[in-house]
Design goal:
Blueprint lengths: L3 E3 L5 E3 L8 E4 L2 H4 L8 H11 L1 E5 L6 E4 L5 E4 L8 H10 L1
Antiparallel strand pairs: 1-2, 3-4, 4-5, 5-6
Length: 95
């Protein structure tokens, strides 16, 4: 899997979970709540990342990229008044 892609605005967006900033994994609730009590923490995280969709935010134009397991990138421009993804995540963690 590539570790970055070029956004429509020309910026380079890193998608490696260890190196990227503003990179998240979008996971369906069913994959988080599966009863897998025999899994250790690493197996649980591997399953969540494997079943999730990578979400990255362009640092320049704030387009959101949804990246599937085949590394198909779908870009979505931010709407007017949208907060940066990192701010949205931080706010949701405070609730």
């Amino acid at each position: 899997m590539a570790s970055k892609f070029r956004c429509d605005c020309g910026a380079s967006v890193r998608t490696n979970l260890f190196e990227g900033h503003g990179v998240y994994v979008l996971v369906a609730e069913k994959h988080v709540e599966e009863d897998r009590s025999d899994d250790d923490a690493n197996a649980c995280l591997d399953r969540i990342v494997r079943n999730g969709t990578l979400v990255a935010e362009c640092p320049s134009c704030r387009r959101l990229a949804l990246i599937d397991s085949r590394y198909n990138v779908r870009l979505y421009p931010p709407s007017d008044g949208a907060v940066p993804l990192a701010e949205f995540v931080r706010r949701s963690e405070d609730v």
